[in-house]
Amino acid sequence: MGTNRTDLMQGTLELLILKTLSREAMHGYGIAQRIHQAVDDLLKVEDGSLYPALYRMEARGWISSEWGTSDNNRRAKFYKLTRTGRRQLAAESTNWERIARAVTRVLEAN
């Protein structure tokens, strides 16, 4: 689509990671690529944000990781959603929908 890309809102990255990992286990680069593809490259997911978010989420028990081999035969850490992470995804999704409705009301107000 366009070349204008938007930085992610605070907290949005974790929701996008959780949703991406709800489909399958992936390594960090794959997560970033999947998010870019899903939003037609309109959102920026920088390594400097992605990996600290993955580490935080793993520390919280939302995701787990193990070393494996990527499609191009490189050693990579693969992340997968935990049961706690699935519950967090549901909570984060509900919260996002609530925020989106509130912002829409403000934007549509006369």
Would you write up a description of this structure?
The protein has 110 residues and is an alpha+beta fold. The chain has a single domain (6-108), classed as Winged helix-like DNA-binding domain superfamily/Winged helix DNA-binding domain (Arc Repressor Mutant, subunit A, Orthogonal Bundle), CATH 1.10.10.10. Helix content is 55%, strand content 18%. It has helices spanning 12-21, 28-38, 47-59, 83-108; strands at residues 6-7, 26-27, 43-44, 63-69, 75-81. Strands 2-5-4 form a three-stranded antiparallel sheet. The protein has a two-stranded parallel ribbon with strand order 1-3.
Structural key phrases:
Arc Repressor Mutant, subunit A; three-stranded antiparallel β-sheet; 110 residues; two-stranded parallel ribbon; alpha+beta; 4 helices
What is this structure's SSE topology?
Layout: E1 6-7, H1 12-21, E2 26-27, H2 28-38, E3 43-44, H3 47-59, E4 63-69, E5 75-81, H4 83-108
Parallel strand pairs: 1-3
Antiparallel strand pairs: 2-5, 4-5
Helix pairs in contact: 1-2, 1-4
Number of domains: 1
Q: How is the largest sheet built, in terms of strand order?
A: 2-5-4
Report low-confidence residues grouped into runs of 5 or more. Answer: none
CATH class, please?
Answer: Mainly Alpha
Q: What integer is the average pLDDT?
A: 90
How far apart are the first and last residues' alpha carbons, in Å?
31 Å
Q: Helical amount among residues, as a percent range?
A: 40-55%
- Please write the string of helix (H) and strand (E) elements: EHEHEHEEH
How many beta strands in the DSSP annotation? 5
| β-sheet strand percentage | 15-25%
What is the architecture at the second tier of CATH?
Orthogonal Bundle
Structural class: alpha+beta
Radius of gyration: 15 Å
Largest β sheet strand count, sense and barrel closure = 3 strands, antiparallel
Principal-axes shape call: globular
Give the CATH superfamily. Answer: Winged helix-like DNA-binding domain superfamily/Winged helix DNA-binding domain
